[in-house]
User: Fold this.
Amino acid sequence: MRGLPMKKMALAYLIFIFLLFSDALAKGLPPGEYLGRSISIAVSDSVEPQQRVHRRGNINFCISNWGYLGSMNRELYESPGCLFCDDPYREVHAPSFEFPPNSSLEYLFQGALWVGGVVEGEALVSVGADGWWWIYELTPVSEITEQEWIGDQEGLAIFTDTMVPPPYTYWPDTADWDKREHRPLEIEVTQKSYSWQSPPFDDFIILDYTIKNIGDRLISDVYLGFYLDTDIFLLSENPYEPT
Assistant:
């Protein structure tokens, strides 16, 4: 793969996911032309959807405050005000999952967190993105904050699945495969992300999720997963062109 050591590639792909559950009792964004630059739609008391890029280390990786990962091959922009950008108030296309940095070699088109469980006998799933259905059921309740404390770059964001209908969903509910409106689990997700710039910790990024039941119904049989659309190509190439 273009001179990259396989061991290095494997480390770059490694994203540690720590899942912490609390209070167990109690599909990415629409196409870029529809959303604009993803900084103009405000929900949840004027909290806007945001993207931030981890830039400390050997991976440039785009995270969000709405359960989405990646940037649709740089369709999405990094939101203004980032702490670790060279020019934090200039809009730039966000690298999706670029390894090594500034190589234009991408490994991810889009990804998202999925959370499922059984509520009052009904199986419910809330998705950060549902592939090409353009369904997005997680919405931000906090901006992304960045700092240097445990890692050389850390991100913190909080989002929920409680808004009905989900404000970012592009197609009507009848276009979804189950032909029904969004039925929330009523959860709150706290996402923390960490990266480092010094070896041997510069070849991975940690995602740490705390998922809390904020409703008044029991959620049982909880499952978590990630949807990943992993296009791998150089930006100078057309990955969809017949060979």
Q: What stands out?
A: The helical segments are 6-13, 32-35. The longest strand covers residues 219-229.
